[in-house]
Amino acid sequence: MSDPRKLPQVLYIEDSDESRSLVRRLLADKYVVLEAANPLDGLQLAEETQPNLILLDHDLPQMSGSEVATRLKKMLPRTPIVIISGDTSNGARERALAAGAVGFILKPIDDSFADLVDEYLQGKVEKLEHAEKYLQAYQQELVERLEGKIRQLSSALEKNKHLLQQNGRMFAMLERRHRLLETAARVGQMVTSILDMDDLLRHTVNIICGEFNFYYSGIFLISDDRKWAILRAGYAEAGRKMMAENYRLAVDEKSMIGRAILDEQPQIALDAVGEESRFKNPFLPDTRSEMALPLIVDSIPLGALTVQSNQLNAFSEDDITSLQAMAEQVAIAINNAQLMNKLESANAEILRTKTYEAIATATGEAIHWVGNKAAPIPGSVQRVREDVRYLLALVAQVNASALKNAALESAVQKVREEAEALGIDLKAVLAEMSAMKPYRLQALVSVESLMEDLDIAENSAKTILDIKEGLIGPARQRSDAAVSLSEMISNTVANMGLPDDVVSMTWSDDMPLAQVDARQVEQVFNNLIKNAWEAMSQTFEPKIFVDGRRDVDPNFVLVTVKDNGPGIPKEIQEKIWVSFFTTKGGKGGTGLGLSAVMQIVQQHGGKIWLESDSGHGAKFYVRLPAVK
Amino acid sequence: MTTVLLVDDEKLIQRSLEKTLLRAGFDVLTASDCTAGRDMFSQNSGTVDIAVLDLNMPGFDGVPKNDAGFDLLDELKKQKSDLPVIILTAYDEVNKAKDAVSKGANAFFVKGREQGLVELVQKILSANN
Q1: What are A176-187's pLDDT values in tens digits?
Q2: Which of A195, A383, A428, A513 is deepest in the core (most CB within 10 A)?
């Protein structure tokens, strides 16, 4: 075999593997065969290797053999190019030669091929008759091909534009999907925090219509007997009208809402008008697409959400996914709200019972208290009446003329006349008195007793009237100011006139001023200290300890009033705050003290509470706002 | 002379009833709580003909108590089982007053028309004689 480095190089550009392997076999002995499967690779290889001869298939991808020949000719003007073609038509050879080839070999190639190649390598150049004609035709062909290329390019451009549009749509869709998911998440977050049912449902339909741009949305909840889906919220005017008419649908197969609830599956109608079976809602005549999503929690349907659009095919897959996600959130929120409602009504029930109990207690105590306070009045009045009769009987006996005063005379006369007119027989009264034993007469005709009875009646009435202060006191207009409680309480205690060693007070250095109405708060501590003192009437060495400091919550002052009296039994610790409840019996309490105290403290935004064990004294805690 | 022991913690009521009873011709001993009532009775046990006891007043421990009058009733009955006793009540405590009778009181009296108490005392004492 010859040294390959010295053999001539032949480049063969051909897309068919079989043709290349055939040529390789035919030429391998005498030439180095370089191969390229397409024109572009071929052109590059030609430039790199500068071969001695180029063989070129005529039917190539990307560009025609003639075109490749022209380019090769320009690139390597001295390298002979031979076109190999199956084209037997008239002028094929000429066109090839016009394109710049030195020869034209018709396929199929045979054993003579190697010799033909050798000839061209030796410098054989085929002659082209009427070269101008073929050149012109060839140029024509080039122009046509160019035009074809331009058409291809434009169509590619067109295609690009289309792709761009498609991308744009895709992008918009992604954006919408993103927004829907965001909205669904936001709705989910928001609705699960709304515990008021009506609020929750109204918000939900508003958001669905506002954010997703649908023209109607409504929420139905199942009735207690589970036979009806009752509209509980509806969007805009149509919703308002339907709500006003107590719009409801039977839970059956006839409506999408009914089916959604029964089957626990979303119902979607993208062409609502086209569906004959669809229930037509007179309030929503423009509906073209409609969906009903069941609201389910723990496999129990609570109701359904309807979303309606005035467009056909209004719901994309994304819409449906987002709305379903939202429906799930809304269902959970509805369930929460329902649980909350149940809890609230249970609480309200307890509160009502407690309130009635408190009112009954307060009323009972009030009746008892007023009755008790009024009890001595009739007795006193009765005695005063008797006393006055006796005294008048005596007055009637006055020798009027001895008074030596006309006005006084006529006054005595008037007593006699008026008594007679009122049916009081003063003579008979006098006779009754005359018959009495002397000590009894002395007991009955007593100015001191008369005055005492008037006092009894007056004091009883006064005590009853004092309730007014207890009731109205806390309601008075407050005028809050910075008050030093230590100073105020010290003064209060000083004015109460308690024995010297009873009350001891400690004030911490950091105790802030209180922002309170001085007059009302003075009443609070006056009451507490007085109560403590009165509770200790049987206590050996009674002591009251008052302590003031900054509360744990630095915005408050905490004052405690503690005694070492008998304490307050557990069973009445709640009752002591009730109006008219009193343990003091006769010792003058109105039973309004602690109820007024609590009212005052609460109105200041403070708090009062009690710690007491029977037998171990009582300790009242009063927390009042500190000056800011 | 008939002597009445009157125990009531409410000063004005106590004084008013005392005066009414005095005027009716009774001697009246007064006290304001269970302990004082018992002591007053012990010191004058020979002379007290009838006791009039309030229902709600400080008990033997000095702490105000709803049915303290019953405790004093028991205590006095221990000392003198045939002592006539009238329990005083507010007018809305009639049910409790009826309990009083079952606990050994001769009668109950609803505070208010004091002359009624005088009549009740007279009726009980004359029935006993």
Answers
A1: 777 777 777 766
A2: A383
The predicted structure's pLDDT at residue A138 = 77
| Parallel, antiparallel or unpaired: strands A103-106 and A607-612 | unpaired
Rounded Cα gap, residues A594 and A456, in angstroms: 26
A476-625 has CATH 3.40.50.10900 classification: no
Q: Given pLDDT bands bounded at 50, 70 and 90, which one contains residue A1?
A: very low
A→B contacts (Cβ < 8 Å), by residue, are 364, 367-368, 371-372, 374-376, 378-380, 382-383, 386, 440, 443-444, 449, 452-453, 456, 459-460, 537-539, 566, 583-587
Q: Given A364, A379, A386, which is nearest B16 (Cβ)?
A: A379
pLDDT tops 60 at residue A590 = no
Euclidean distance between CA atoms A139 and B128, whole angstroms: 158
Q: What is the ipTM of this complex?
A: 0.79
Residue A586 confidence class, pLDDT cut points 50, 70, 90: very low
Domain boundaries in chain A? 4-129, 180-344, 376-469, 476-625
Buried b (16+ CB within 10 A) or exposed e, A19-51: bbebbeebbeebbbbbbbbebeebbebbeeeeb
Q: Which domain range does residue B65 map to?
A: 3-128
Look at residue A507 in the predicted model and tell me its pLDDT.
95
Question: What is the structure's pLDDT at A194?
Answer: 66
The answer to whether A286 touches A215, Cβ cutoff 8 Å, is yes
Interface list for B 88-107 with A (CB within 8 A) = 90-93
- Per the CB < 8 A criterion, the answer to whether B67 and B24 are in contact is no
Give the count of beta carbons closer than 10 Å to the beta carbon of residue A66. 25
- Token pair, residue A487, equals 């100073």
Residue length, chain B? 129
**CB within 8 A of A548, min separation 6: which ones?**
A485, A486, A489, A505, A506, A507, A508, A511, A557, A558, A559
**Higher pLDDT, residue A583 or A452:** A452
Report the C-alpha gap between A351 and A513 in whole angstroms. 36
Which tokens sit at A525? 């501590």
Q: Minimal Cα distance from A445: which residue of B?
A: B23
Cα Rg, chain A, nearest whole Å? 58
Domain count along chain B: 1
Instruction: Using CB atoms, pick whichever of A367, A449, A539 lies closest to residue B92.
Output: A367
Note the pLDDT tens digit of each residue in A395-419: 999 888 888 899 999 999 999 999 9
Task: Name the H helices within chain B.
Answer: 11-23, 34-43, 68-79, 94-102, 114-128
Which of the residues B39, B63, B65, B67 would you substitute to probe the A interface, choosing the one with the greatest number of A C-beta atoms within 10 Å?
B63
Does domain A4-129 fall into CATH 3.40.50.150?
A: no
Residues in chain A: 628
* Mean pLDDT along residues A600-606: 89
Arithmetic mean of pLDDT, A539-568:
92
The CATH architecture of the domain made up of A180-344 is 2-Layer Sandwich (3.30)
The answer to whether B62 faces chain A, any CB pair under 8 Å, is yes
Return the CATH number at B62. 3.40.50.2300
Residue in chain A lying closest to B21 (CA): A379
| Torsions phi, psi for A398 (to 5 deg) | -65, 135
